[in-house]
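re: that chain from earlier
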Amino acid sequence: MADYAGDVSATDAWQAIQDDADAVLIDVRTQAEWAFVGMPDLGGIGKQLLCVEWQQFPGGQPNPAFTSQLEAQLAGLNANRDTELFFICRSGQRSLHSAEALAAAGYRGCHNVAGGFEGPLDSEGHRGLVAGWKAAGLPWVQR
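^ sequence. v structure.
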């Protein structure tokens, strides 16, 4: 079994994805989050964001097909078990679990994007301002 590669900041993940032609960013949030909150935009660097729900919407039940769905998408990019994979969710918890799951499946470069896409709540109860992809000012899109 491969070891989980650890947490990285959103800015470090962005830099690695730009620098490594094979590196992949995987968004494990729900379809509702992708639609209503936004998602990282990799179009400016000519890359594709992979989206696979770790927990299914609605209901929040674990996605029993997560690994097989993700492996199919990775195969479409010609990724292999040595490809650097960066997992992102809202705040970093689901992405941590998904990175660990892929590491357990034999992938050697599984990283969690600490702080996720929106980060923790600020003192006013809002996300996206304290930490994470949005707070770092990294490219994102609302679809």
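The chain has a mean pLDDT of 94.
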